[in-house]
Amino acid sequence: MRYHQPIFNVPNSVLALIAIFIAVHIVRQMLPVDQEEWLTVAMAFVPARYSGYAAELPGGEIASITSFLTHMLVHGDVTHLMFNSAWFLAFGGAIALRIGGPRFLAFTAFTGVIGALTFLAFHFGELVPVVGASGAVSGMMGGVMRFLFSAIDRHNFAALREAPHSVPLMSLNQALTDKRVIAVTAIWLLLNALSVLGIPGVDSGGGIAWEAHVGGYAAGFLCFGFFDNRAPTSRPRPYLVN
User: Fold this and answer.
1) What sequence ranges are listed for the domain Peptidase S54 rhomboid (predicted)?
2) Total domains in the fold of the chain
3) Which of 49, 62, 89, 154 measures 20 to 30 Å from 39, CA to CA?
4) Is residue 237 part of a domain?
């Protein structure tokens, strides 16, 4: 008899992060405008901190370290918050169920930090505050690409919800040469490019830190195996050809 998990099988670690996102947003909205702006910049990732201006910005020198993580907890508006929370449920749920809460949190932090560093590489010294968990969300999408199509090949898409740890992990070489992975990645990059160009219906009107998205996705895609080292590895089937 096959056991089925509940339809809404959301790990506590994912719910906890979303709850923190919401709590931070509510607190910010309750503060006076000047205090809200100070807190937002103090938590935001600002490249200018690393070119000699850390002491002059909200949060001071300590924010040069903490903002690598705290920027993920702040969102520009309710739409931004809802969008990232929805993607956290979609991709973060599968990742957390597969590798467990502690590794999921470590993976989230890792991809978010790499996303911030990628943004820093393109905007070093600029006074451009970056907020939101989109870099980490992109990292989760990249991680899911390493086992999504393995589940589809086995005609067991439900395993992504019921038992994602049982789905074989694509080797990095397989993933880099899989046409479906390449196609999804290309479409995702195109959407990011369209948002930068301000195509109506794609850009929501706020600035898009596409560099953080790309850095997070690359980190998740390339490094997910380090967080998933106990999972079975997918091997090419001898009767399949490309």
Assistant:
1) 66-223
2) 1
3) 89
4) no
